[in-house]
Design a protein that fits this description.
alpha/beta; eight-stranded mixed sheet; 10 helices
């Protein structure tokens, strides 16, 4: 059976050519995390599309989502899409824990595996800010556009660096992870770590049973209940694919390092712009501090970041345009997992960019 591309968030079910990106790496010596740990060498992998103009004013930041590489926004990139690399310089970064950037799987002792320090969204935003300022000499952005954990980074950037970008776009992600999201993520982690082969994170071989359980829990939240009822998985499956084969694809979905998955899940859990220094845990006050126009695009059927959370946050953001994505594709709608959502996102992000 052909792999179902619809369940791979970083791939889009669209007939399109691959967009060319250049691979880069930025290294920070003695990077101090928000929790106080110091990484001797913190590495950020990133990709770039297009070219930086003479006055360095055409940069858009695309921070990655859960376990994604820097190709995760190519549904938005192209001459006929919202982000034209012929005009813009696009910087797509990878989160700590991606397996490319500094991660439990690629960092030597004393921080290898389960001993890798816990990271926060603010740690990621600070590292990327340094990448832009120190390596690329970019002191201002046209925009930050983020999906899911990328949206978390977009919100944090708007709070931590309120005048650094002209505009913010957040799709399928919120400014805080609320308790229901933590419960979901802890359920996935519990399924993974229950495998005896996990050995407290010091496994000698991948904990396959735990990874399969992790994938099945993930599947139950990824799409809407209506998506499953209508069997919309058939739109991307090979002819003759059965439901059992679909389930098996989800079961085999996760094949990267288990400690990397857990690090990013816990990074996701801890996100709250209200805990930014100076805001005393007050998310409403932090959201009110956002100065620039913000296009907030939750999916109407997202089970990860329910639309109700976005509707709760949006009134506190002074220049917010709340535009739910009318989709049955759950969380994946915010990453253009089908042609209808891709059209909706590209058209409305383009319109937001051209508005005053």
């Amino acid at each position: 059976m052909k792999t179902l591309t619809l369940i791979l968030l970083c791939r889009v079910v669209l007939a399109q050519s691959q967009v060319a990106a250049e691979h880069h790496e930025f290294v920070i010596a003695n990077f101090r995390t928000e929790g106080g740990a110091v990484l001797p060498l913190a590495r950020i992998v990133y990709g770039t599309y297009g070219h930086l103009n003479a006055d360095r004013s055409n940069t858009v930041l695309l921070p990655s989502h859960y376990m994604a590489n820097y190709h995760g926004y190519e549904w938005l990139i192209g001459s006929e899409k919202a982000l034209d690399p012929g005009k813009l310089f696009l910087v797509a970064t990878e989160l700590f824990g991606s397996g490319g950037s500094s991660s439990p799987s690629n960092t030597p002792e004393p921080f290898h595996g389960p001993r890798f320090p816990q990271m926060t969204i603010r740690d990621n935003v600070e590292a990327v800010h340094r990448l832009l300022i120190e390596e690329l000499k970019v002191t201002h952005l046209k925009a930050v556009i983020g999906f899911s954990m990328g949206a978390q980074q977009a919100f944090q950037c708007a709070v931590s660096y309120p005048e650094f970008a002209d505009r913010i776009v957040a799709t399928s992600g919120t400014a805080k992870t609320y308790p229901h999201g933590i419960v979901r993520l802890e359920g996935q982690i519990a399924a993974l770590t229950a495998d005896p082969a996990f050995q407290g994170g010091d496994y000698t071989a991948p904990p396959r049973i735990g990874l399969e359980a992790f994938g099945m829990v993930w599947a139950g939240w990824l799409y809407s209940q209506e998506w499953w009822r209508r069997e919309l998985w058939r739109t991307s499956a090979a002819p003759g694919t059965t439901f059992d084969q679909v389930l098996n694809t989800f079961r085999k979905r996760f094949s990267a390092d288990a400690n990397d998955y857990i690090l990013q899940a816990r990074t996701w859990e801890r996100h709250d712009v209200g805990t930014t220094p100076g805001y005393g845990g007050d998310i409403e006050r932090a959201l009110r501090s956002i100065k620039v126009p913000l296009l907030y695009m939750p999916s109407e059927t997202d089970l990860y970041f329910p639309v109700g959370d976005a509707r709760t946050e949006a009134p506190f953001i002074p220049k917010c345009k709340l535009m739910p994505i009318p989709s049955l594709w759950g969380h994946t709608a915010g990453a253009a997992s089908n042609t209808t959502d891709a059209k909706f996102l590209n058209e409305n992000i383009s319109r937001f960019f051209s508005s005053r």
